[in-house]
Amino acid sequence: xxxxxxxxxxxxxxxxxxxxxxxxxxxxxxxxxxxxxxxxxxxxxxxxxxxxxxxxxxxxxxxxxxxxxxxxxxxxxxxxxxxxxxxxxxxxxxxxxxxxxxxxxxxxxxxxxxxxxxxx
Amino acid sequence: xxxxxxxxxxxxxxxxxxxxxxxxxxxxxxxxxxxxxxxxxxxxxxxxxxxxxxxxxxxxxxxxxxxxxxxxxxxxxxxxxxxxxxxxxxxxxxxxxxxxxxxxxxxxxxxxxxxxxxxxxxxxxxxxxxxxxxxxxxxxxxxxxxxxxxxxxxxxxxxxxxxxxxxxxxxxxxxxxxxxxxxxxxxxxxxxxxxxxxxxxxxxxxxxxxxxxxxxxxxxxxxxxxxxxxxxxxxxxxxxxxxxxxxxxxxxxxxxxx
Lengths: 120, 258
Hints:
heterodimer; A: mainly alpha; 0% strand; B: 7-stranded mixed β-sheet; 8 helices
């Protein structure tokens, strides 16, 4: 069985993540579309930490006999990988759009110059 | 496509409209086959209406077709999604000093002939924003997938409870706005599934919203931007946005002095 202190610490830390994410959305520092994955991460980890019997059962399925909280780490790492992969996709999209914007701007500037509008 | 709705009177029957500067905001994504008809119908409804088509990164000739019809065309360099596209139109309307804006989708599902109904409460000064609702009169003409209808109903229920006024169609983009409404949406408009959050935002900023019963047509072309799988994601996102939005302090937008 998971030590009680580990369960409490895990649940508190995970739930703090949920609250921090919600507060960041409220302050317009984080858009909802980028917050959903973090919220799911926080909620799943909170549930797994608080629901000690469940964690034990899942650990049993996976053959983790010696130290059930290892499943917590595994799930946490899995979600972190998912979030990172998501961000890699977002960055790819953004850099593509950034190139497009710069090109459009250069073309527009050239066109303005051709019409006699001076550079500042 | 058969005309099933009795055509209401055109814009000439609306008192006071003639003196106002008014613009139609038409978001379009790959609508080269329907955009001409939408533009023609808007002009038939009100020849004094300016039209701005926002091409949200179409791969087809939408922008060229609209430009050939002599409308303003804002061509976004890449797809921003419906929220970003429509807000571009609101920013245009705000900066160019329009008094009234109507929003009509480029896919032809909104019949411009019904705009007089939507404009009426705004022109009378009873509403800052009037929304054409498919369900306000219990009209059964709207066909859609069951999951989609259920999603619309759930969102309408949640929104009605929050704003304290019965709202039946939170996903309708068929709207008319006065200068206050334009100013609000030019400043702050939600992202990819905007109408639901926008409805809540309108009430949070103490603007007056009124629903008007309309019927909508089948889409004339293109594809709905919302597929079955995505609607689950949107549902979660929108509910999260509404929930968090409740804990925000409201900021009443100030119209910039020009």
